[in-house]
Design goal:
Blueprint: E1 4-14, E2 18-21, H1 22-25, H2 33-40, E3 44-47, H3 54-68, E4 78-82, H4 93-100, E5 107-111, H5 117-130, E6 136-144, H6 154-157, E7 162-176, E8 185-193, E9 201-203, E10 216-218, H7 220-241, E11 251-254, H8 259-269, H9 280-283, H10 290-300, E12 309-316, E13 320-327
Helix pairs in contact: 3-4, 7-8
Amino acid sequence: MMMQRSYIAGSGSYLPARRVTNQELSETVDTTDEWIVSRTGIRSRHIAADGELTSDLAYEAAIRALEHAQTDVDDLDLIIVATTTPDQTFPATATKVQARLNMRHGAAFDVQAVCSGFIYALSVGDNFIRAGQAKTVLVIGAETFSRILDWEDRSTCVLFGDGAGAVVLKVDPENSAGSGANARGILSTHLHSDGRYNELLYVDGGPSSTQTTGHVRMVGKEVFRHAVTNLAAVVDEALDANDLGRPDLNWLVPHQANKRILDSTAKKLGMSEDQIVVTVDRHANTSAASIPLALDEAVKDGRIQAGQLILLEAMGGGLTWGASLVRW
């Protein structure tokens, strides 16, 4: 039996109301707007309000994605939330979203791959559809990363923000997974990890080790080096798997970690700056939420059009990295 192909039927996103500029940060952290912008391209970020949870952000993004996809909750088979900052150690944040949506059927669970989380979650949802185990899947990336930052460490606290983005995957009745690269839908996903590099980007706490949440720690120069190399390689891997080349790409929607990483990756791929969807300047690094936030913006403002070839890619702690090639 020919495997089914999934396609992105709709997208949605949500940012907390509070916007924090670099100037505001410089009043409490030993930093300046010039220092942050020159090294990261970040000018502002959104921070969740007291009492505003990751599940709250995820729910708001989910509602918008379902509306955009013209999909009813009753049609959902599965909810997958990619997050590093769950509401609780357990149960899964996805089940809290499920409850708020009043979805009493199907299944819901979380995926944890840090900044690569959305790509990992998208891959899981796509494979559920390809295997015939689901027809409609809600995939969410949501983070309250501000809750795990050391606000006295200027090398990390200026980099991150909070937010959520979501997409609705549906089985495409017109195209199978063997329909070729010109048919709409998710053409392929490619996932990688290398646990030897744990110490480059990690949180120094956890239930099993310290019984605390801990804070983000990072060796920035090494993460940068691995990111540029790994992301360019996984882009080519995705293109090669579909007999496509770099000139075939219309848009790159990357994880929004650092403007310098985005620029270096684009240069390696021979893509122009106006082919890269960039939100890091306004959102900072929202980890698993960054790709769906950027994707939703480019879809809603009309940049991404039907028939275009889109490459989603990310790298995060683990190290983990991956890419998904999508025909819109």
